[in-house]
Amino acid sequence: MTFDIINPESLGAPKGWSHGMLAPAGGGGGGRLLFVAGQDAADASGVVAESGFVEQFSRVLEKILTVVRESGGGPEDIGRLTIFVSDIEAYLDSRKPLGEAYRRLMGRHYPAMALVEVKRLMDPNALVEIEATAVIS
Predict the structure, then answer these.
(1) Out of 37, 67, 99, 101, which residue is the most buried by the measure of CB atoms under 10 Å away?
(2) Sequence-ordered list of residues with C-beta below 8 angstroms from that of 82, at least 6 positions apart, any chain
């Protein structure tokens, strides 16, 4: 199987990984699976500048959507999101503004989701990381 590698220029060049991997279409004209790597709030230079939980969440979800759109899809094509947070209390305390940010970017599309609290993320300034799976027609 040969994947199309999806690395939008606006996200910066990844080192040792890819932002997205788009699988070939299966038989019968089905969609193509897109696997989006875990994204944090880092800018194209690799710096996490936003310090607030909601701001980082918004930036991360925007990056996920950048990879999905580069692959020819949109928010409605995302079938799964896994959200990793380093502070579950920050998530719980921010639910209302998080919901507003989510709906601004994703509309009323709610894929299967998991929320996982982790001890820390790769970048010590990152509070949120999200990975996704989408089906692109």
Answers:
(1) 67
(2) 38, 113, 114, 116, 130, 131, 132
pLDDT score of 26: 79
Name the fold adopted by 4-136: 60s Ribosomal Protein L30; Chain: A; (3.30.1330)
* Joined tokens for residue 110: 């709610």
List the chain domain ranges: 4-136
Predicted TM-score (pTM) of the model is: 0.96
Q: Compute how many other C-beta atoms are within 10 angstroms of the C-beta atom of residue 22.
A: 22
What does the block give as tokens for 111? 């894929």
- Which residues contact residue 29 at a Cβ distance below 8 angstroms, ignoring those fewer than 6 apart? none
Smallest CA-to-CA distance from 130 within 115, 119, 120 is with 115
pLDDT tens digits, residue range 14-44? 999 999 999 998 766 689 999 999 999 999 9
